[in-house]
Amino acid sequence: MQNQSAPSLSMxxxxxxxxxxxxxxQVAVSAVVSRAVKRLADCLIAAILLIVTAPLLAILAxxxxxxxxxxxxxxxxxxxxxxxxxxxxxxxxxxxxRGPEGRLLxxxxxxxxxxxxxxxxxxxxxxxxxxxxxxxxxxxxxxxLFQEYASWYTPQEARRHDVRPGMTGWAQVNxxxxxxxxxKMALDxxxxxxxxxxxxxxxxxxxxxxxxxxx
Length: 215
Description:
The chain is mainly alpha-helical. It is 54% helix and 9% strand.
């Protein structure tokens, strides 16, 4: 009886392994397809928004040049997908005012009234649609941080770079600047571990509400 049952148990194990491998392949394929859809949606939405907002961007750029002088765009190096640096674009919101010793004055003293309006309405973020088109960013993902912050990460926190950084993200619609560093990191990692197209749609919808409320 033992000799008869052994092959049966072995066959069940083989079938079980094949089933597990099949499920793993299906999950992997599904993840690849979802990421491809996300990238396609990013490109389409970013392209449409850039076309629609082009007149507004031109007006804002002219207003910035008149009130603050050139340039209208602000460029800054941030950390992107897999920790690779890229140049992030924003509309300028601050003057280049310096003190007697040649150092830049504190941010709150350099932000203009136009700059405060741009920040409150998040219009200063519109040029990042170009970053999305280029593939530096996604519409949704952890916000890209400064290069020097990389030395602050724990190995676990560095996983936030397993996805493209976003114009908006889970942390941004759940407290934004009110959150501590650890809280932001925890929310970013939650997003990385639970990402789905449906979650991105939820975040985008919540972002619109936050912007319209001036939060």
